[in-house]
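Proteobacterial dedicated sortase system response regulator
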Amino acid sequence: MPRTIALIEDDVAIRENYIAALQAQGYQVNAYADRPSASAAFEHTLPDLAIIDIGLKDEMEGGFMLCQQLRQISQTMPIIFFTARDNDVDTISGLRMGADDYLTKDISMAHLLARIAALFRRTDLLSSPKQQSEQIQLGHLLVDVSRMTVSWKSQPVALTVTEFWMLHALIKHPGHVKSRQQLMDESRMVVDDTTITSHIKRMRKKFVQLDDTFDHIDTVYGMGYRWQG
């Protein structure tokens, strides 16, 4: 069956253009012009991936509201924010709400399709059969690579797909500094430095919410990040 992509975009011309491009790649596209119609549809059936504009008609942050709704239903479904608004506040707000990526509308079609394909490659690992579970344990951290689950002091940590693979890249070699480019490569992402930084900050925050003494993800200024045991 073809992958289903939900496209929530209020500009008719942009919406039709992206519907055509995504369908040409073999995706099934369910398009919505506003938050209420998309929200109602998600109550019944979830797509495999969602591309959400932030400003939807008279709701300047309608896309953020949709993202929150989707994350309450699924922690791992890939969500991409797609917007004409290009500023750090929007980017960080979007990523904090659980989006896996944040793109501006001047991005090329090829770039957008590459990001979608990369997110699908990661989610495929969730459903691929495994003979036995591959687990990594570092102190209080337990990561089940096969099931893409993370726990800290036996409490589940709700990471998005992107956050999971960034954490995995850090803990494979504890104490070793991973540059932003290495995190991108190992997470199969194509994003800018600001987006990597936002993912790291949000990932740290999720651990700190469970344990206010958590300090294992270090920023090594000018170099990157590392997991400290």
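thats it. The chain is about 45% helix and 20% strand. The longest strand covers residues 4-8. bye
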